[in-house]
Amino acid sequence: MERTITADLSGGKTTVEIRSGDHMWIADEPIDSGGENLGPDPYELLLGALAACTCATIELYCRHKQIQLDSVSARFTYDRIHADDCADCDGDTTGYLDRVRSQIFVEGAFDEDQRTRLEQIAVRCPVHKTLANGLTFTTEQVIVG
């Protein structure tokens, strides 16, 4: 399914108006980065998409399997670390790495098999898979006027 987002920045500030169909929201940079902090920064929006997708995927899975789910919440943290400081990285990695850490909290009366399956489902949301597998970018036009 193709999705389209538009973003518009005007007025010399860092506040960006984002639109998708009937929805509108804003992004901005923090004050210490020269912005006005009027909305989440782009990385916060990215993490928000990942958190929302993770929670929805778990809920939809539980609904499909008729598993009683009391609540689900997710916490994602983004940072950059040097490859030398990454204990989980292979030895071929150099420079800085983008890292996302997650904590996912699922509440309900689950048996051990359901608990194990929910741990697997948590990392199978479409946004997680897209980010983990990498993206292909195609810039069709850059118009400078």
Mind explaining what this structure looks like?
The chain has about 140 residues and is of the alpha+beta class. It folds into 2 domains: about 1-40; about 40-135, K homology (KH) domain (GMP Synthetase, Chain A, domain 3, 2-Layer Sandwich), CATH 3.30.300. Helices cover about 30% and strands about 25% of the residues. It has a 3-stranded antiparallel beta sheet with strand order 1-2-3, with no helix packed on it. Strands 4-5 form a two-stranded antiparallel sheet. Strand 2 (about 15-20) and strand 3 form a beta hairpin. The mean pLDDT is about 90.
In short:
The protein contains three helices and five strands, in the order βββαββαα.
Provide the descriptors you would attach to this structure in a database record.
145 residues, alpha+beta, GMP Synthetase, Chain A, domain 3, two-stranded antiparallel ribbon, 30% helix, 26% strand
Text of the CATH class of the largest domain: Alpha Beta
Helix content: 25-40%
How many structural domains can be distinguished in the coordinates? 2
What is the CATH architecture annotation of the largest domain?
A: 2-Layer Sandwich
Present the secondary structure layout.
Blueprint: E1 6-8, E2 16-20, E3 23-27, H1 42-65, E4 71-82, E5 96-107, H2 112-122, H3 126-133
Antiparallel strand pairs: 1-2, 2-3, 4-5
